[in-house]
Amino acid sequence: MFIRTVDDGLEKLLRAELPLPDDLGDITFEAPTSGWSAQLSRITVNLFLYDVARSELPSRSLTQRQETNGRPERRAPQPMIRLGYLVSAWAGSPRDEHQLLGEVISRLAPLASIPAAHLPADIDSAVQLALSTDEGNRLREIWSAAGGQLKASFTLQITAAADTFEWRDQAPLVTRIEALAAPKPGGQPG
Fold first, then answer.
1. pLDDT by residue (tens digit) across 99-113?
2. Burial letters for 37-56: b for 16+ Cβ neighbours within 10 Å, e otherwise?
């Protein structure tokens, strides 16, 4: 669900910001292979997820909430995960593709995270985003591995807490101590 939530948030964000209504163009997450690109008939923004790794950011701290019935719940710290997307634009000509890719960059570059309005209400973490370089996987190598043609593109990195650990009932708060333990024999404190 974690990656699907990010994908859905990215699609909603781009459809709202570009704008790119369903009847005008597509936002896809397919591998940009030559077979895939040959089937395109509409303008398309492609966000190919090519890298998933644990982020260097520390795990998100312990989370607490009140369940609808009033019971407190807690969840262990969630590991931070980094997702790398290869973002490309597909249109009738290189000039149109460059214009569309520029529009995508213009909408994403000023954002530090996907706005909450484009994410489900129950997500417990900000979904950080950044345009970045990818030293480990040069774009040329990704295009070659996908079997697609080299084209203008950029790397979008997303960092968010993985939805790893379940919510559990939180132990009740200690409000008072009923009795103290007896001292150890010989008068030594415990």
1. 999 999 999 999 999
2. beebeebbbbbbbbbeeebe
Please, which residues have CB within 8 angstroms of residue 48's CB and are 6 or more apart in sequence? 29, 30, 31, 32, 85, 86, 87, 88, 142, 146
- Name the pTM for this structure: 0.77
Beta-carbon count within 10 A of 23 CB: 6
State residue 125's pLDDT score.
75
- Does residue 85 lie in a domain region? yes
CATH of the domain at 31: 3.30.2000.30
Residue 52's nearest CA partner among 94, 81, 27 is 81
Residue 23 lies in a domain: yes
Domain encompassing residue 140: 2-60+80-165
Domain count, the chain: 1
Q: What is the pLDDT of residues 35-58, one digit of tens each?
A: 999 999 999 999 999 999 988 865
**Is 73 part of any domain?**
no
